[in-house]
Every structure is written in structure tokens, then in C-alpha cells.
Amino acid sequence: DQLISQIAAGEVVERPSAVVKELLENALDAGSTTITIRLEEGGVKRIAITDNGRGIAPEQLPLALSRHATSKIASLSDLENVGTLGFRGEALASIASVASVRVTSRTANAAHAFEIVGSHEGVVAPSSGACGTTIDVQDLYFNTPARRKFLKSEQTEYAHCAEVVRRIALSRPDVAFSLSHNGRTIDHWNVSEAAKRSAHILGNDFAEARLALDEAAGPLHLHGYVGLPTASKARADGQFFYVNGRFVRDKVLVHAVKAAYQDVLHGDRFPAYVLSLDLDPALVDVNVHPSKTEVRFRDSRAVHQFVFHAVQRTLAQTSA
Ligand code: ADP
Ligand code: MG
């Protein structure tokens, strides 16, 4: 059982940033509005995430660490309409099989917090803390040295973690985030609007040279900002695409945006953008791989055309 968990963990928990992603998604699924991320040694030594979400009742704490015990999917047909970010019920169990995990949580109506340490077999004990949840993950891969060997330098692992935080923070301006590494606060973003959050994360030259986009057609809705080439210092890695709230890297979408830039601006410059595509969940399969950023559209031609034309029309305003 432990071995199966560790093998599964290899899939879900490739590196510290994958843990950060899973924990952040859980915090968001719990309705949190403030999330604190504390990392030590690139996340290998410690990833501690505290949220102010709805918390986990004490009798649910062992379940949270059990494989395939999710509170989020009631039936198979729900799989078609996943509204939450996590739905497989294996992330925490997988993480707990390759690291030391402590879950401390307090629901709104509880007199105090409770905690569980180690695995679903751990004892639930009283603890202290505000409403919400802290998941403290220490010594990642301590029991799987082969995996640990694949990790890169502390700075590289940290950079991957920070990128995951940026991606999620960009898509959730309604949530405050703060990120620290080795005791030093690196980033802090207050609750704000999408325009401000993206300026904050992508920098002022993006904020000063971008066009807002908001177009809908049938079940497809695209909104966000496309940067102009004059945003010269725009980061090379400043391209963000979200589908139903999830960050994705998708060939169809990237191609559609690129083609629109080339069509209007003719250059081979490819500025920063932050775009969100929302569509009926039945029209997209996000179930391709838990830790990957892939999606599969039922009708990728229609999606491509829609995104291409929306970005093209928006950029064309510059030459009008
Ligand atoms: P999933 O997110 O797929 O349901 P996880 O293993 O990520 O599975 O989490 C297991 C369960 O633990 C969740 O379904 C949820 O009930 C609970 N949980 C985990 N993290 C949090 C959190 N930060 N706040 C509230 N509940 C949480
Ligand atoms: Mg989850």
C-alpha cells in the first residue's frame, strides 16, 4: 500500500512545485481569501501553506490523507462537470507517502483547531490556530532517495515553486497571497482587480502597453489582456493562458494567439499576455494528467478560430 502510494506520488508530486500547486488548489477549493506560502530550501526542506478557508472537520482529517477520499466528487457524472480544481482525492495521500505531513485545521464552528500528523493512520489531536487550514510538508522524498537525486538546485526548485504561485495569483486577484523563502518575504499581493494584479505580477511596462479583451461567442468566453510589442521589457515568460481557471499550456491556444499577433503586427515578436478562456466544462477534458497543464477540447478547431479572431480583432484596434 505504501509502495503503491509512493509510485502514484511520483506522478502527482514530481518536484516541490507540484506540491505547491496541489496545496494551493486545495486552499482555493476551500474558498480561501488569504493564502500564505512559506518555503524553505526550494521547498525540499519545507512547504507550509496556510489558508483562511472553510477548514476540515476533525473527523474528516484522516480522510483528507486517504487515497481517493475526496469531498469534491459525489458521483461519476460529476467528473464531467468538475468545478473544483482538485477532484482525484490523491494529492494529500501521495504527498504524505513521500514527505512528513502535518495538517492543522479549524472549521468556523469548532472551538479550536485539530491536527493530524503523518498519514491517515495518525491520531487526531487538539491543536491551536485560526479558522482555516495549514498543511506543513517537510523533508520531501526523505524516504525515496532515488527521487531526491532528480531534484535540481535549491534556486531552481524555488523558481519553479514561485512560478506556480505567480500563475495562480494571476488568475485569482480576489485572493491575497504572500510568499516567503527561507524566512524572507519575496512577494505579497493584496486582494485587487485583475488589471492591478497582472500589472503587479508582470510589471509596469505590461500595464502600460496592453489591450483589454472581452469577447464571447456561444459557449466560449475569452477575457484578459494582450500585451503590445512596445512593452519591450515584457518578460519572455510572460504568456499566461487559463482554461476554466486553470493555467494551461496548449498547442491549439498558443498557436491561435501567435497567429493573431503575426496577422496584425507581422513581426515575430510575441509579447506577454494573460488570457482566460471560460467554456462549458463538458466541452473540455482537463482530466488528461493530474500534474500536467494539458487540456483536450472537444472541438479544437472552433476554439482555435474563436481565440484567433478575438485576439486579432483586439490587436487590430492599434492600427485602426
Ligand atoms: P482532492 O483535492 O482531489 O479532493 P486532495 O488529496 O488534494 O484531494 O485533498 C483531499 C481532501 O482534503 C479534499 O477533498 C478536502 O476535503 C480536504 N482538504 C485538503 N486541503 C484542504 C484545505 N486547504 N482546506 C479545506 N479542505 C482541504
Ligand atoms: Mg486537491
Question: What do you see in this structure?
Answer:
The protein has helices at 2-12, 16-29, 61-64, 91-98, 145-149, 154-171, 194-202, 204-208, 251-265, 300-316, and strands spanning 34-40, 46-51, 100-106, 113-117, 125-127, 132-138, 176-181, 184-189, 210-217, 220-227, 239-243, 246-248, 273-279, 284-285, 296-297. It has 320 residues and is an alpha+beta fold. The strands form three sheets. An eight-stranded mixed sheet has the order 5-4-3-6-2-1-7-8, covered by helices on one side. The chain has a five-stranded mixed sheet with strand order 9-10-13-11-12, sandwiched between helices. The protein has a two-stranded antiparallel sheet with strand order 14-15. α1 (2-12) packs across α4 (91-98) and α6 runs antiparallel to α7 (194-202). Bound molecules: adenosine-5'-diphosphate (ADP) and magnesium ion (MG). Adenosine-5'-diphosphate binds at residues 22, 26-27, 30, 51, 53-56, 64, 70-72, 86-93, 133.
